[in-house]
Amino acid sequence: MEECLFCKIVMGEIPSDKVYEDSEVIAFLDINPRNPGHTLVVPKKHYETIMEMPENEASELFKVVKKMAVAVKKGMKADGISIGQSNERAAGQVIPHVHFHVIPRFLSEGPPGLESILPTKKMTKEMLDQTTEAIKSNMGIAVEKTAKPAEPEKEEPAETKKKIELDDESLDF
Fold first, then answer.
1. Rounded to 10 degrees, what is the CA torsion of 63, 76, 94, 118?
2. Whole-model pTM?
3. Which is the catalytic residue, given 38, 46, 97, 99?
């Protein structure tokens, strides 16, 4: 991907402060760190989202994420580590190339994690059951896309979608 910032870093066209590199993965310091030691772990091969990655490549990527979590925590003398990974704009993904944030955290700071940032949703037992079924019915779907641009998804007819109503919003399945 010619315009991808992370691909340019992988190819050495943009400098970075590398803390780890192997044949498949690179890790470097974030230029807008949340804390000193905030590290990005990036596959060298371009995938926009983790759902596009073959399972074996995602597994190898996460092995490096774990190694970096240990190294960052020890190196920064942190009290904990936050690991973040977003997919697609709705989830807050800014750079469309798979990456994990490994962020050292300290007891003296806040908020500690997503649990204190995102509001909770109240769900009835029926809503929980519908949600459970919607997830379980899609567990057999393996998305093994290549790095080719994704084709636009076809919209399901409205009558085939499941809808779960929450207190102040709804989720379509």
1. 90
2. 0.76
3. 99
